[in-house]
Amino acid sequence: MKEKRWVRSCVLLTLLLCSFLNTFSQGTFKVSGKVTDDAGKPVSGVSVLVKGTTTGTTTGADGGFQINAPSGLAILVFSSVGFTDQEVNVNNQSTINVTLAAGSSNLQDVVVVGYGTRKKVEVTGATSSISGDKLRSVPTTNITQAMQGRLPGVLATPNGFRPGAGSAIRIRGNRSLSASNEPLYVVDGFPVSYTIDDMNPNDIESIDILKDASATAIYGVRGANGVIQITTRKGKAGKISVSYSGSTAIESIIRPLPIFNSVELSDAWRQAFFADRQYTRNIGAASSTNPLYYYPTALADVALFRNRFGSETQWDAIKDAYTWLAYDPANNIFVAKKRLATAQERQTMINLGLTQVDSVDMYDPSKIRSFDWLNEVGLRQGRTDNHSISVTGGSEKIKASFNAGYFKQKGIEYAQDFTRYSIGNSVDFKPVKFLNFGTTINYIHAITNTSTSSYANASGMIPMTTPYDTAGNWILFPNRDQQIVNAVNDRNTVLDETKANRVFGNIFAEITLFKGFKYRTMFGLDTRTSTRGTFNGAQSSVRLGSPANASQTNNTASSWVYDNIITYNTKIKSDHTINVTLLQELQSLNRSSSLTMSANNLIFEEQKWYSLQCNVIPMLLLQVLARSLPRNTFHTWAVWSMAIKINICLL
Fold first, then answer.
1. 94, 136, 482, 559 - which has most CB atoms within 10 Å?
2. Quick one: which of 435, 437, 436, 438 has its CA closest to 427?
3. Alpha-carbon distance 600 to 547, whole Å?
């Protein structure tokens, strides 16, 4: 009786273990459902986010959604403008229907609508917002990644998966086939002309999105693709507050490419040549004097791997799978030991119409050598470190804040990394009741390194070959095939580095002439300089043994804006409001210049893209080495505008 119970327990434990392994191996848990309001009507544009991750989606017109959660124990966060955020435990449920409760309090929240702020209840256009706390809830590289799946009607698609790669943001889809579909970015009231991907998400107080005609009504044609209003963190009245946030993440590939090993690849080639009736003793089609084989045969493998491809490396990896009676490559003697064919093997060969069906060569595929290119040289373990500190404080008369951040991402591919240092400072001074002035300044230094894709190169290599010879020297063509290049050395010889420095900020003054009537003047500046250096060494997959070349590109860009704004706010009775805004603005946008220098036939590879002018051999001064002349470009454009806006809210 005890033995039966023990056997029953073992069987039950095995079934539970198999069930657990099956669930674990799936990797993701698909969840679908529908989101409705209190009246049972579907709610579209609801942000559905897996808590603690960047995985998210939005509901369709019917309120339906579908998302792949990391597991059946994940938590989904549902959020939408006008509704209270709701968290739902998946609990291994494949279908989840959610009813969102209306959030009346958020109608009193303040949103940035361009040259001012409004309560949500007073905004008639389509807007959506996200707070800095939600942005910082999940560590991300940049702002665009932080917005993925979190704002209804806003789609953020990564431009690439290398460290430092930005994203393309689309508000309510694409509007043009040929023109730009990028939205207008406004940072602290300053329309910027450059990327926001180098900004630190931890420095953001809030993001407000203008989606419809209200964007063009304020910013003209520049707001045709929507407007993203970014407000950076400011000082707050009260005691000095110090906050720190940090995270470290280890990254590795989840689903490697299904690449053949040596056994699988050699079998695939044999099958391909057999189908073409060329898996024979000699290179060429099968005949009465050149028999065709189906099962691995030493003489046919010699012709296929050693003679046809001319690769001793491939043959050296395969030859040990045979048992040899005589093996003398110098004299072209290859005699493998044979065994009688099994009944099944003999019948298969007869069905295929082969002539030699009584015996096959003794072959043990487990003795074939195989090099794992993907895991050995294709990828490494990635790591991301993100640290930031914020100090705020002040009184009713002066408020100040200081933010500093450090971000470092080492990609899972070699020679791919991104580093960012950021510092921000804000001061708001109100010496008297009717006067307020202040300044905000941010500095960002970013370093991006890229190279050729080691993973893509490794996936195309022959597993019977190795990247280094027995002496440890790098092999350019390990397969003796000019089309299959070993790019392992590119991590040291193919370099593409961009160093960027960016300073942006503004200074403002605001005077309250009488109750509800304010005059504000603001000057903002955004400057960005970058240096990009590229280098291709002689012993790389780019130069293939030819002399090294390099280039250096220096970019300088700046934009500035000067605003004069008069606003008047008043109330009629207790519920109705009238707002009038008069604006005069002068902008100089994207004033940029670029200078590129390049040189071929570098004398010293150690110089990389530095000192390109020192590349002439004294004995050959009269000879022109293939060097291109510097190329310089300059671009600028400006905008002068005036506007008047009247907003009447009747409640």
1. 559
2. 438
3. 7
Question: Cβ(230)–Cβ(185) under 8 Å?
Answer: yes
Nearest to 612 by CA among 554, 546, 544, 540: 554
Q: What residues contact 410, with CB distance under 8 A and at least 6 apart?
A: 163, 380, 382, 383, 384, 416, 417
State how far the Cα of 10 lies from the Cα of 648, in Å rounded to an integer. Answer: 75
457-497 residue pLDDT tens: 999 899 999 998 888 888 888 887 778 888 888 888 999 99
Please name which of 184, 42, 273 lies closest in space to residue 639, comparing C-alpha atoms.
184
Using the predicted structure, report yes or no on whether residue 395 has a pLDDT greater than 80.
Answer: yes
Q: In this structure, what token pair is assigned to residue 403?
A: 């933010």
Residues 6 or more apart whose Cβ sits within 8 Å of residue 494: 415, 451, 452, 487, 535, 536, 537, 540, 541, 542
**Once rounded to an integer, what is the mean pLDDT over residues 357-364?**
93
Q: Is the pLDDT of residue 265 over 80?
A: yes
Strands, DSSP E only, in 4-45? 29-36
The number of helices, as runs of H, and strands, as runs of E, in the chain is: 11, 30
Alpha helices in 207-311 (DSSP H): 213-219, 262-275, 298-301
Using the predicted structure, report yes or no on whether residue 106 has a pLDDT greater than 70.
Answer: no
Parallel, antiparallel, or unpaired: how do β-strands 98-99 and 29-36 relate? parallel
CA distance 397 to 383: 44
Closest CA to 114 of 27, 29, 11, 189: 189
The mean per-residue pLDDT over the stretch 76-100 comes to 87
Please give the DSSP secondary-structure letter assigned to residue 341: P
Task: Give the span between the Cα atoms of 449 and 339, in whole angstroms.
Answer: 57
In terms of C-beta density within 10 A (0-12 exposed, 13-18 middle, 19 or more buried), how is residue 509 classed? Answer: middle
Question: What's the average model confidence in pLDDT over 271-299?
Answer: 91
Compute the average pLDDT of residues 55-84: 85
DSSP three-state, residue 27: coil
d(CA 647, CA 651): 13
Instruction: Identify the CA nearest to 567 among candidates 7, 113, 167, 240.
Output: 113
Instruction: Please count the residues of the chain.
Output: 651
Mean pLDDT score of the chain, rounded to an integer?
82
Rounded CA gap, 201 and 181, in Å? Answer: 23
Among 514, 551, 524, 546, CA closest to 535: 551
Alpha helices (H) in 289-417, listed in sequence order: 298-301, 312-318, 343-351, 373
The pTM assigned to this predicted structure is 0.72
Provide mean pLDDT across the span 571-579. Answer: 74
- CA-nearest of 355, 346, 425 to 390 is 425
Q: Residue 51 carries which side chain, given as an amino acid letter?
A: K
| Most confident among 93-107, 188-202, 400-414 (mean pLDDT) | 400-414
> Helices marked H in 352-395 — which ranges?
373
Query: Could you tell me which residues are beta bridge partners of residue 512?
Result: 518
